[in-house]
Amino acid sequence: MTTSPDPIAYVDLARQNAGLIDDLMGRIRRVLEHGQSILGPEVAELETALARVLGVAHVIGVNSGTDALVLALASHGIGPGDEVVTPSHTFLATASAVCAVGATPVFADVDPRTMVVSAETLEAVLSPRTRAVIPVHLNGFPCDMPAIMALARRRDLVVLEDTAQALGAKRDGRMAGTFGTGCFSLHPLKVLGACGDAGFIATDDDARADDLRQRRNIGLRNRDEAALVSTNSRLDTLQAAILLGKLPYLETWIARRNDHARHYREALAGLATMPPEEASVRAIYTPFVLRIEEGRDGLRKRLADAGIDTRVHYPIPVHRQAPYRRFATGPLPATERLVETILSLPCSPELSEDQRDRVIERLQAELE
Predict the structure, then answer these.
(1) I need a surface site. Which of 25, 144, 188, 241 has the fewest CB within 10 A?
(2) 3-state secondary structure (DSSP) of residue 159
(3) Cα 71 to chain centroid, rounded
(4) Contact, 274 vs 287, CB < 8 A?
(5) Residue ranges of the domains in the chain?
(6) Cα(158)–Cα(307) distance, rounded to whole angstroms?
(7) CATH topology of 16-248 equal to that of 249-367?
(8) C-alpha distance from residue 146 to each of 69, 114, 205 (Å)
(9) HSE of 52, CA atoms in CB hemisphere, 13 A
(10) Helices H, strands E: what count in the chain?
(11) CB–CB of 9/309 below 8 Å?
């Protein structure tokens, strides 16, 4: 009797944690022993370590990538009456953060080759009410930030970078999230993930960093005095401890993702449209996204039947989500086409070479 191969998960966090569990449990134990559960020493230690990785002056830990965007927008004074331009081809948290501060999201189309916004697609929807832009480094591919920063200088715009999927991605040797105010997620599915929600903001602006530290802590200047009205968005000490245990593996995990991507490219060349490659860019393939011009959904079902889990990031663009339809102002042809053709393949560091080869073999058989 022939048995079917084991299923190939899109991501396997249990396998990642299993390899680190002794160290992580030791770090958790130390937090329990010192008892500083709120803004304990591990939070500051993680912030310092992440600032060193990015080459920035300040990292401010918060409780999610979404709150990183919300607090950064508020810190820049973005609010009611302001428009913020961002892509519709992204996770809806980007637009939800804009709405959370009372501003209006305006949706830009993406470059169909890179699948991210460009200076040109952002500029096409700017208006006199535009106060900020939020380029999203989707799929771990960094936007052309030098061009976007030049546009922002010309039009006097605030730039926040949604770097939720791109910690470690680079353009021209510079880390994504370090051109404007960088907003990062440390959700479990990211390249560096907590065991729960977590995030941080990166900045070189000393005054901005002080303001953000107050905003994440209910607006407190010190234990007893409030400087401003804000919410509670502190990064948990336990999550910081876990992230400190995982951070030394960041470059190894990125290299593993890039190795999977290289094999996919070589094996599937000519069979599907691949993510772009640019000499000045290091992508980190948070997902590895193919484009299947015809029959994507049928292919995905056949892969699932063969035990291969794939995803679509994201099948419904934000401007077509029910709560955000009122903000749609014009056609987004590249976005509309992309969501019908994109397919995310397993690409996590825990994916074995044998599993990757099984994915490749099945795709070759389906696409040739």
Answers:
(1) 25
(2) strand
(3) 17
(4) no
(5) 16-248, 249-367
(6) 46
(7) no
(8) 21, 16, 19
(9) 8
(10) 13, 12
(11) yes
Cis peptide before 10 (omega within 30 of 0): no
As given in the structure block, the two tokens for residue 233 are 């968005």
- Output the CA–CA distances (angstroms, integers) from residue 311 to 10, 75, 244, in the order listed: 8, 35, 29
Domain 16-248, classified CATH 3.30.200.20, yes or no: no
**CB atoms closer than 10 angstroms to residue 149:** 17
CATH of domain 249-367: 3.90.1150.10
- C-alpha torsion angle, residues 227, 233, 238, 239 (rounded to 10): -130
In whole angstroms, what is the distance from residue 187 CA to residue 28 CA? 18
For residue 258, the model assigns a pLDDT of 98
DSSP state of 330: S
Complete DSSP assignment for 35-80: ---BS-HHHHHHHHHHHHHHT-SEEEEES-HHHHHHHHHHHTT--T
Residue 312's Cβ-count burial label (10 Å; 0-12, 13-18, 19+) is middle
Name residue 158's beta-bridge partners: 132
Could you tell me where the beta strands, DSSP code E, fall in 172-292? Answer: 174-175, 181-185, 199-203, 281-282, 288-291
Residues forming a β-bridge with 308: 8
Segment 198-233, tens digit of pLDDT: 999 999 999 999 999 999 999 999 999 999 999 999
Rounded distance between C-alpha atoms, residue 51 and residue 49, angstroms: 5
Residue written as token pair 């993930």: 193
The whole-model pTM stands at 0.97
pLDDT category at 5 given cuts 50, 70, 90 is confident
